[in-house]
Amino acid sequence: MNKTINVSMIVIIAVIAIFGVTNSVSAYTIGQTGQEIVELQGMIIESGFDIPLITSGVAKMGYFGYQTQSALAAYDASQGSTKLGAVVGPDSYF
Known about the structure:
Blueprint: H1 2-24, E1 26-27, H2 35-46, H3 52-55, H4 66-78, E2 87-88
Antiparallel strand pairs: 1-2
């Protein structure tokens, strides 16, 4: 019985934490496109983090793919962020 209560509490806390974060920041997902992504990628590259397909000229800006996600995660890590995934918000300053 105790394990069931503990697991339930963990799930509830996780759900609250996830919705709390997503309500206060903009979350980008793989496959998302648009001007916001172009601006994000420009800021990432200007900050010194590479998005190889874009910087090599193979791809154009505007598609949030795995390389953009990786570059954003590297930027966040360099700033001491402990967030997982590609989330841009108050902890991500360019």
